[in-house]
């Protein structure tokens, strides 16, 4: 290990194995069970069944599954037997799904016309910021435009867009770009994935990325 590299402890590796948003959802589930419902941890299978019964039809089935999963992970982390694996808990979840079916809600996709309007607005704001020498706003609007177009054409999730790094992006004007994500939600092997995006005649993510003042500044270093 290089002398200037800080030594990582066991807790650092264990912490890195779980995404931040997953940890937040787990904490929220535990708080809901203990504080809002009044449950006790470690829990029993019977208490989990009562918890599910009280919220059946009030919370979405996927939400209940996520909270039961979080409670199960809490027991595993604390060294207790996992009551969520009990057959009665699994049977209860199936029964709730059967008696309270709900159509999955999907967000409407961003339409091309709305995309054009948003990009036009960002371009107007960029030009206004440039004229008024508000360079922080100029960088922000330029970044937002690039992220919007990359996310639209590649179908990236918001958390994937937030993890984009300049050092993992290769772009060639008029040709295309390669984007490497070290990890994605569907990447169970943690090998990372590389995505290609071609240059387009309009609403081009490649041009938006290369036109960023932040990119120019990094290339000059």
TrEMBL record:
Among the GO biological process terms of this entry, one is: DNA integration
Query: Does the record carry Signal as a key word?
Result: no
GO MF terms, alphabetically ordered? DNA binding
Query: Can you name this protein?
Result: Integrase
Q: What superkingdom heads the lineage? A: Bacteria
Fetch the PANTHER family from UniProt. DNA ADENINE METHYLTRANSFERASE, PHAGE_INTEGRASE DOMAIN-CONTAINING PROTEIN
Any keyword DNA-binding? Answer: yes
Classification via InterPro entries: DNA_brk_join_enz, Integrase-like_cat_sf, Integrase_recombinase_N, Phage_Integrase-like_Recomb
User: SUPFAM superfamilies, from UniProt?
Assistant: DNA breaking-rejoining enzymes (SSF56349), lambda integrase-like, N-terminal domain (SSF47823)
Give the keywords, sorted. Answer: DNA recombination, DNA-binding
């Amino acid at each position: 290990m290089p002398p200037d590299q800080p030594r990582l402890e066991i807790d650092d590796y264990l912490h890195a194995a779980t995404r931040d948003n997953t940890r937040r959802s787990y904490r929220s589930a535990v708080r809901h069970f203990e504080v809002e419902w009044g449950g006790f941890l470690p829990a029993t299978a019977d208490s989990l069944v009562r918890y599910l019964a009280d919220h059946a039809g009030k919370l979405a089935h996927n939400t209940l599954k996520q909270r039961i999963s979080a409670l199960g992970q809490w027991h595993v982390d604390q060294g207790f037997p996992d009551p969520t694996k009990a057959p009665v808990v699994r049977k209860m979840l199936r029964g709730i799904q059967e008696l309270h079916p709900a159509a999955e809600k999907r967000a409407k996709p961003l339409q091309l016309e709305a995309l054009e309007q948003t990009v036009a607005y960002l371009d107007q704001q960029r030009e206004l910021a440039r004229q008024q020498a508000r360079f922080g706003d100029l960088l922000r609007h330029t970044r937002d435009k690039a992220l919007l177009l990359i996310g639209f054409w590649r179908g990236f999730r918001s958390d994937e867009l937030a993890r984009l790094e300049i050092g993992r992006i290769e772009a060639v004007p008029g040709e295309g770009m390669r984007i490497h994500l070290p990890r994605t939600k569907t990447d169970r092997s943690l090998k990372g994935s590389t995505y290609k995006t071609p240059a387009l005649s309009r609403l081009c993510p490649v041009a938006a990325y290369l036109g960023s003042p932040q990119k120019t500044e990094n290339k000059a270093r």
